[in-house]
Amino acid sequence: MIDEKWIERSSDILGGTPVFRGTRVPVQTLIDYLEGGHSLEEFLDDFPTVDREQAISMLEWTKRVLLEPA
Fold first, then answer.
1. In this structure, is residue 45 part of a structural domain?
2. Which segment, 3-7, 56-60, 66-70, is predicted with the most confidence on average?
3. How many folded domains does the chain comprise?
4. Helix then strand then coil, % of the chain, to nearest 5
5. Which residues form the domain of 17?
6. Cα–Cα distance for residue pair 22/68, rounded to 1 Å
7. Tens digits of per-residue pLDDT, 4-34?
8. 69 lies in a domain?
């Protein structure tokens, strides 16, 4: 599981959508930015409440999950 210090999910925040802890920025927004050809730097510039460590942690967790042996 992803470290809960980086991501949170609460019915009180955007109806339970996973967001970067301490923000109202959905994790999906980072994924959408990257899919759209934007850089991590652009995302961080546009969403200054998310810090680099949070974003990198989420990306590393996703990589581990996807590359985990079946």
1. yes
2. 56-60
3. 1
4. 50, 5, 45
5. 7-62
6. 29
7. 778 888 899 899 999 999 999 999 999 999 9
8. no
SS3 state of residue 8: strand
According to DSSP, residue 1 is labeled -
Residue 55 neighbours by CB distance under 10 Å: 21
How far does Cα 61 stand from its chain's mean position?
10
| pLDDT score, position 37 | 97
CATH number of the domain to which 15 belongs: 1.10.10.10
- The model's pTM is 0.83
Question: Phi and psi of 7, rounded to 5°?
Answer: -125, 145
How far from 52 is each of 46, 49, 67, CA to CA, in Å? 12, 10, 22
Write down the pLDDT at residue 1.
54
